[in-house]
Request: fold
Amino acid sequence: MSRRRTFTRRCSGPGPCPETSVIEYTAHRELEHVAKDWKCPRHAAPDEWMTRANRETTTVLELQPRYLDALRPGQEPRLLGYFWGPPGQRASHGSVSGPGFKALADNFPPGTRLTVTAVITLPDDAPEDTTS
Reply:
């Protein structure tokens, strides 16, 4: 039986970041598809993180058709169904949910947009933050 090894990547985001990604592998060829440059979730999408300085964020998902590629030449692609995804990007979720909402793609017509907004409301007596 082959011995499992680990490959550890440090976050390549700005500044010192303690986050790491650990990947287990048996053969080096398993690492061929793994990007050497990796960013933790906070550095990969910094605008999505809520902070005292960034207290509101909005995202939009659009219901889009998804097709299975034709298996043979001359064959039409087959509709798999409708899925949620960012406008102009690949849609991959048949259902989406978060605190206070759930939305199944099957319940809505194509082109439907789901807009989700999150707002942080600090208490009136919250101390000033100098770190953001």
About this structure: Residues 5 and 78 are 41 Å apart (CA to CA). The mean pLDDT is 89. The first helix runs from residue 41 to 44.
